[in-house]
Structure formats: C-alpha cells, structure tokens
Here is the input.
Amino acid sequence: MPLFGRKRTKDEPVVAQEEFRLPEPPVPGPNGMRSMTDHRDYLLSCVDPLPPFGQQILDAVGLTLCEDVESPINLPRFDNSSMDGYAVRAQDVHHASTNTPISLPVVGEVPAGAPAPHRLSPGTAMKIMTGAMLPEGADSVVPYEATDRGEQDVRINEACEPGNNVRRVGEDITEGEVVLREGERLASRAIGLLAGIGIDKVMVRPRPRVVVISTGDELTEPGFVLPGEQNIYDANSYMLAAAAKAAGAQVFRVGLVPDDPERLKQVISDQLVRADLILTTGGVSQGDYDIVKQVLPELGATDFTQVAMQPGKPQGFGLIGEDNTPIIMMPGNPVSAFVSFEAFVRPVLRKLAGLDSWVRRTVQCSAARAISSAPGKLQFARGVVSEAEDGSLVADLASGHGSHLLGGLAGANALLLLDEQTDFIAAGDEVGAWLLIED
Ligand code: AMP
Ligand code: MG
Here is the structure.
C-alpha cells in the first residue's frame, strides 16, 4: 500500500476507462483528400470557447465580452455646462446684442464638482465652469466670449436660446441601456466607456494560451552560430508565436525539439498544464523522421490527414492529455506552416477566444498577371494586393509557389485563393484573397 494511501473500506470496482475518440472526421473527396473548408469546420467543431472569468477592465482590452453590459447611470449624469461662462434664464437675455447689451447681477459661481450654491433667481446670472452642474432655475449658458467677464455684474452681448451650451442628462447614455453586448471584442474606447459608467470589472473570455513547438534535428535557435552546413534557423516557432500573439493569444514559445520521439513526448506532456492550444511544426509528412505523427497517438486522440491544398497538405489534429487539449500539427516548410495557421489555427483561436466570426473574409481582386495553379487542390499563392485608382483591388504575385520561400512570404500582404477547379487565371480575371491584416 502506498505510504499515505487511504484504507479502502470495500473493494472498489475497477472501471475500465473508455478510450476517448475524436468525432467522426469528414469524408474525403474523390481524390482521397479532405477539402480545406471541411477540415477547418471539423477542427472548429472539436473546440469550445474558453470559460469566462472576471477581469479588471484595463486587462480586458482585446478580450471578448461574455455579458451584456447595462449602464447603471445616465451619461451625462446631470445637466451641465459645455462652456466656461454664465448660467442664465434664456428669456432674460433674449434680446441681448452688441448694440443693446443686457446687464445681470452675478450671484455666485459653480465650479466642476461642486453643487450650485442656490437656485438661480430670474434676472440674475451665475458664473459656471465647463462640466459644472447647471443650477436649478437656469436653462442655458452664455459663454465668456459673449460677455465682458464681469464679476459683480455681467454685460451680455449675445442673445441666447434655452438649452444653449447645456449638455442634457442622459443625452449620451440612459440608465439601464445596454451599452456593450456579449461577443464584442473590447477596444480601448469600450474600456473608456466602462470606466465612464463606473464599471471596473467585466466577464470576458481569457486570452487563449498557446504553446508553440517546432521539431527537426536540423534546427538552430536564431542568435546562435549554425553548427554545421546542414543546419538552418528555426523560423517557424517565431513566426507562429508572433502570428498567434497578433491574433490575441498569450503565447509560450517552447521552440525547437529534435526529432527524438521520447523528448517530444516529454516536452508536449510537460506543456499541457499551461496550454489551451498546442501548435507544432514539422514531422507530419511521409518521411522516416516524421516523429510527430508517430508519437502523438500515444498522448491522445489524433487525426492525421491530407488536405487538398497547397501548400499545407499534410495536417494533424488531436485532443490530448487529461483535458483533451487541442493540438494542431502543421508541416515544417515555413510557408506551409503559415498557410496552415491562417486556414486552421486562426479560426480555432478566434473560437476559443469567444469571437463570433472565425474565418477571414475572401475579397475579390483582379489579377495583375496570369497565375497558374495545381488542379485538384486549393492553391494559396502569396500575393500583394493594392488599390487601383478607381478603388478596386488588384492582386499581384509576391513570389513563386515554393513552400520554402520565406522571403516571398514576408513580402506578401495577402494570400490569393485559387480553388480546386482552377488551374489558370488570366490577367484581369477575378481572384479571391485573404488580406493578412493582423487583428
Ligand atoms: P518537415 O515537415 O519536418 O519534413 O520539414 C519540411 C521542411 O521544412 C524541411 O526542409 C525543414 O528543414 C523545414 N523546416 C522544418 N521546420 C522548420 C522550422 N522550424 N523553421 C524553418 N524551416 C523548417
Ligand atoms: Mg522535420
């Protein structure tokens, strides 16, 4: 018996743990491959938004609101002056002009944050500062500029209508009004509004915690000398960490792990505790050292498949560990990894974060030159989209199709989508694009 084990009072039946399985994956097309949209929808169906938690408003910027927020107060809270000047009854200065100024005794003053000393009697004026509460009896404010700024008596040289320079109670927001809705991503302006109505905490979805791992014996950490001619720098873990961060995630970049099954298993198991999503690159193709594919089934339920897209054909997904943490396993070529991020990871991240639009909008552009594409697969070409003089969008190629072309990827601002049926687009034809706006 273990040292601190409790004594069993009776023999507890051993319950066989039922093996966790992924939902039935989509049926592949006639070419034996899954379409990009089928695979994306499948991944989305396997994850749920993260549970909400209460957060201080300043830490909630960029997060998704999980409640409708009603204003507990009116904004403005009370009738107040929009100018420094004199609170008056409009009817007392109705006929004032430069030639026929009207003089009123000044009977007090109201600075912002102080109540009016008393009610304003007819035929008098009270000094008032911007934001100060309009005294009872007054219905308008004459700005300093329309007076002689008198202290005892004030000469008013401009006529005034009721309501002039007065900000009305509730004209911006009324008490009980829903000012922010569930599902909204909180921008700085919303944070200002929350503070302005006196709310300091809100229920939001947390930033998804994303662990990024790259695999490959050939990889070297940037900043270090490459040990041999056969080595390359690890671009992927940095690129994906940056992309996940830009998409609103809290990122833990673990970096490179060699092609060693035991090491990989250990690293992934250790990371599960702080991950809402794990991303890996490399090791999912048909090569002898493709260890991700080999090891992951030992950690949970997995689905390795071929998606009819280029680049990014081999894809892996799993729900692993005790909490069925999602893991997306992407191919190692940097462009393949980036395209996989755009096609699958970003939508999953947006769903985890509680946003309601998961997928990038496809905008239509006119092709600046002819583009060829492999038929039977959705081709993601790296593009540069710009606005023509008439405001329409024009798409040019940023580089060739090779999935190793990291320089070409960095020069692109869009992915051009050439669908499975298309093998050629002539110059001037329409082509769909995802604009790579990081938000
Ligand atoms: P793999 O998917 O592991 O077969 O890798 C495919 C190609 O991508 C190989 O040429 C790798 O050297 C390259 N590659 C894999 N991982 C990375 C990485 N983290 N950064 C840059 N290139 C990589
Ligand atoms: Mg590899």
Notes: Residues 215-216, 282-283, 289, 332 surround magnesium ion (ligand 2) (CB under 6 Å). The chain has four domains: 36-49+207-352, 53-75+181-205, 80-167, 362-435. Confidence is low (pLDDT under 50) at residues 1-5. The chain has seven helices and 28 strands.
